[in-house]
Amino acid sequence: MSLLEVRGIDVFYGNVQALWGVSFDVTEGQIVTVIGANGAGKSTTLKTLAGLMKPKTGTVLFGGRDVTGLAPFELVEQGLVLIPEARQLWPAMTVLENLELGAYGRRARRDRARTLESIFAMFPHLKERVRQNAGTLSGGEQQMCAIGRGLMARPKLLLLDEPALGLAPMLVREVFTSLKTIRDQGVTVVLVEQNVSHALAIADRAFVLETGRITLSGPARELARDRRVRDSYLGLASL
Amino acid sequence: MEDVVLRPAPIPRRAVPASLFAAVGLLLLLAPRFLDRGSLNDIWNVAFGVILACSWNILGGFAGQVSIGYSAFIGIGAYTTVLLALKGVDPYLTLPLAAVLGALFSFLIGLPAFRLRGPYFTIVTIGVSEAVRVFASGVSFTGGSSGLRMPAGSFDFGVNYASMVVLALAVVALSAVLSRGAFGTALSAIRQDIDAAEALGIDSSRFKLAAHAISAALVALAGSLYAINFQYVAPGSVFDFRLSLSIVLMPIIGGVGTLAGPVLGAVIFSYLQIKLLTIPALRDSYLFLYGGLLILVMLFEPKGLVGLWNRLIAAVRRRSGGTDGP
Predict the structure, then answer these.
(1) What ipTM does the predicted assembly reach?
(2) Chain A residue numbers touching B8 (CB-CB < 8 A)
């Protein structure tokens, strides 16, 4: 069943069109990854889904309901949560404060204690840092905190913008493993990632964005074998 | 492993203990029994400054939305009081309406202006407040540029003094309460990263509007008490751009976004201004001094006196071999 249906969205930055009639479906319980070069519109897609940008035309259905143009806080309340690029933690707050504030919405606040426990189970390291200011964490810890903060909002659909950006290879693996755990707990994931081989390895489906248009889509395993994808995005891997 | 308590963790701000706060408050309220009128006037001025600085700090400090247009709210409060007093209403009964009108006007500015971020927002606030001043100078119901005088009546400085001091204490207490609760945490999230706040379900516009309204209402109250004390109000004085600037300067000197900073900044700034204005040579050039002061603060300690103090504490700890440095 489709949890998210994106139908022909056009998105503009002023007069510059960033997305051209983008349409795709996200099936509940899957990890879907959006791959593409810099400036292809990956982050714009996520920002639009999260309500931070409004499409000029087209619709977004979430759980069968039209959510086009809703404000971010309304979407969060419905279970659509974005973990923004470059973590964007609140640096002067502690890890615990960051996490707690993630559960700001009414729906999430009720389950706060239970969600927190499950996040500490997933990232035990984070529990040791609860009293530390988020600004003093390492890059990997910050990313875990950012993912945890997103989970605190009890998402049905979690949007992640480049979670592996700037992380050491070992941490990249840990972050990607956590995404699989998150999916297995029943949260649908849309992942934007430059690290295409990793993304395709954990994703169920994938889309390729090129200059604001979707040019390829299909099961992630098939796309990983597709010659065009291998040449354009997995160049080194095919050598 | 440490047990995690699900309450907002105490914000690491060194809060002035409540007992000291109460003692200072009591002392100020009893001051008319043992101080002369001149000193009481000085305290009145400082209290006025504290109200302006702390109220501004709710939006400008906690939420990080720097407005340089707060004189508009002083003017609205002052004019509400004078205009109604001229209709025969007891001046102190006009205070609630002044607060409500101040808050309403804050929505009028905030609804369009909060669509903008950072310096763009600040510039709009300057523009709006200047427009208000020009408008108030041009229309007749404000008395035009010559202003309005309160109806002659019995004026009691004691009542006005007590009101100003009580309001100042209330604003400081309210700031402390706000900064610790969920409301303050949300404002702080907006200040530190508004995109993240939005992405996680905090309706930033609503919180900014609320913070703006609360601080505008408080500043309008101060404006009312100001008008009652001076018995006279004119667009050139209450809508003065320099007044808007002073309101920003006080928290910046003391430490933006902290609790003690605006109070400290207001005390120093207000007192300095009283003393400087008595020196004829400085009467017109004191703004240069403030400008210089602002540049110094920005260059060397953007967190103001509170930041300086924290640095000092950290240095002393390091010197004494403490391990819990920042």
Answers:
(1) 0.74
(2) 97, 100
